[in-house]
Design a protein that fits this description.
Length: 222
């Protein structure tokens, strides 16, 4: 008699295990399907970045660009760059934990200063563009983050450049650029960290303002 009871228990448990396993399998498959559907519905970062980088190179290749003053040249380029770069996110990341200690006005001030610094330090080097082309190699997506890998190609060499992106609504926005393995954000973050430890936030602002003035004077003299 006991083996009949045991047999019924085993069959009942086996049935429970079967349906439990089936439920888990359905959840896994359905969850995987939803994940794939969500990924499929997300915009493609490369397809969004391709026309943007083409627009940047078109501005740089415009023969009228070098007929205007340096400040206007860099302003034309930065106006295009703003379309696909999240300077607030960049500013937040270069300051790290110090960003949270700033009030809204200070955050806006720092974003403006940091954007202006980038404009003079990098966008200002327009003369270095000599017709290089951009080749897209691959991309990686993880949730609301993505990386678009490219090569900047000219006759002599190819430079690997990766754009680190964050999804804002339906738009992929860049918040970091990695050139030959060197992160722009991390580079500035390490520099700013030392200044913040030594001179605090007011000291950092003062040094950035001085650097902008210095770069501005260099542009006027060139």
């Amino acid at each position: 008699m006991w083996f009949m009871i045991l047999d019924r228990r085993c069959r009942r448990q086996g049935t429970q295990f079967f349906f439990s396993g089936l439920l888990v399998l359905v959840v896994i498959i359905f969850g995987s399907f939803l994940g794939q559907a969500a990924a499929a519905s997300s915009p493609d970062p490369t397809e969004q970045f391709r026309p943007f980088l083409q627009k940047v190179t078109d501005v740089l290749a415009d023969p009228t660009l070098k007929t205007v003053p340096k400040k206007e040249q860099s302003q034309r380029v930065i106006n295009v760059v703003r379309e696909r770069f999240d300077f607030r996110e960049m500013s937040k990341r270069v300051l790290g934990q110090h960003w949270r200690s700033l009030n809204t006005q200070e955050q806006a001030q720092f974003e403006q200063l940091f954007t202006e610094l980038l404009q003079y330090a990098y966008v200002g080097k327009i003369d270095e563009y000599t017709g290089q082309q951009v080749e897209f190699t691959q991309q990686r997506i993880k949730g609301d983050r993505a990386e678009v890998q490219t090569l900047l190609v000219d006759a002599n060499k190819s430079i690997p450049i990766s754009y680190i992106l964050i999804l804002r609504g339906t738009q992929w926005m860049a918040y970091d650029v990695v050139v030959e393995g060197v992160s722009l954000v991390r580079n500035y973050m390490e520099q700013f960290k030392e200044i913040l430890l030594k001179d605090g936030y007011p000291g950092l602002v003062k040094q950035i303002e001085n650097k902008i003035s210095q770069l501005e004077q260099q542009q006027k003299q060139s």
